Amino acid sequence: MPLAAERQERILAAVRKHGMVRLSDLVTQLGVTAVTVRRDVTLLADRGLVRRVHGGIALPHRAQTQPAREGVPGAYGPMATRALVGMVVPSVEYYWPPVIQGAHAAVAAAEGRLVMRASRWDDPAEDRRQINALLERGAQALLIAPTTTGDTATDLLRWIGSLTVPVILVERRPPQELLTLALDAAMTAHALGAGLAVRHFVTLGHSRIALITTRQSPTSTALRTGWHDAVDTLGLPSHEDLDIEVPSYGAPGWAKAYTGVLKRSRDLGVRALLVHSDREAIGLIERARDLGISVPGDLAIVTYDDEIGAASDPPLTAVRPQKHRLGRIAAELALAKLADVGEEWPVHRVELWPTVVVRESCGTVPRPEAP
Fold it and tell me: What does the DSSP assignment read for 316-349?
């Protein structure tokens, strides 16, 4: 049996010669098991040297085989019209409705149809099932928010990268181990958003700022990164023990946990909280009121989300991800990629900054919002 390095060089030589090689042919040519070939192919694909396609592998540079389509102007080039676009999201409740609405608006403007299916958080098998269902339905392009952590998620992303229809990841990017996986993505710069919140607090005179997230927070890792980076960059005092997880608002034990956070903050001299998300921020205000803690007089709060922040009492200063715009951009990318018949499509990673909406919960009187 040839050594791994020799096998992989022979695989690369075959792909260079033929452009595309079936895995079954490699098993015969190399005289090894299918498991061995798949392992070699996985290593080569992760290094960006080959690309998985159905039943085989090809060079990492895709040939332009799609026919020209009548297009409408778009930010990323002419967009395909009358296309069926599939979308897989982990939820149709929290966070995702505006993203879906943005994607729907963009597809409808190009006389196409968006077909959406809901998966589940952290379930690669369900992601794959829903993607296959959309492909069977005839989807010509896909907008996907798949699970991206864990071994099964890595396999899922490799498979997604082998699909022959345009794919745009939404609020997701491939992990570091799949750095060269050529998948387009449209994302929110959540870490930067957390940094914007910290800087807003600092301009108001705060130097100790706690981060409050829930255990189910899908963006908590990025928010934590941005919070830490801003604290370090701005030279703020130690924030050790100020990264706090709480139950979701309304979950068993939430009131006791939120009361504990507020008492702990008071004992540590912390007068500023960055909270993900609106429900939890409103829950903290509710508990603060019961404890005689004034917001914003005694405690300043910024929420990360802004779905219902304006209706809070007091209205919440918020870091607002541009969800509707994100969905629209993801769809426009997919339609432009579908219509592209010129030079090879470069990988796009579009990142939107969230915006800070100033209201009363930080002690600053904002400008009146437009009706």
Answer: PEEEE--HHHHHHHHHHHHHHHHH--SSPPPP-E
List, in order, residues 6 or more apart from 342 with CB less than 8 Å away: 64
R_g over Cα of the chain: 24
The pLDDT of residue 370 is 47
- CA contacts within 13 A on the Cβ side of 328: 14
Round to whole Å and give the CA distance between 52 and 166. Answer: 14
Q: How many CB atoms lie within 10 A of CB 340?
A: 22
- Please state, in angstroms and rounded to a whole number, the distance separating the CA atoms of residues 258 and 248: 10
- CA atoms lying within 13 Å on the CB side of residue 6: 7
Confidence of residue 54 (pLDDT cuts 50, 70, 90): confident
- Bond before 91 cis per omega within 30 degrees: no
DSSP state of 362: G
198 sits in the region (left: phi over 0; alpha: psi -120 to 50; else beta) called alpha
- Between strands 184-188 and 209-214, the pairing is unpaired
One-letter amino acid at 187 equals M
Query: Side-chain half-sphere of 263: how many Cα atoms within 13 Å?
Result: 8
Residue at 164: amino acid letter = T
CB 40 within 8 A of CB 4: yes
CB atoms under 10 Å from CB of 291, counted, come to 14
The Cα–Cα gap between 229 and 35 comes to: 43
User: Rounded to an integer, what is the distance from CA 337 to the centroid of its chain?
Assistant: 20
What pLDDT is attached to residue 313?
Answer: 96
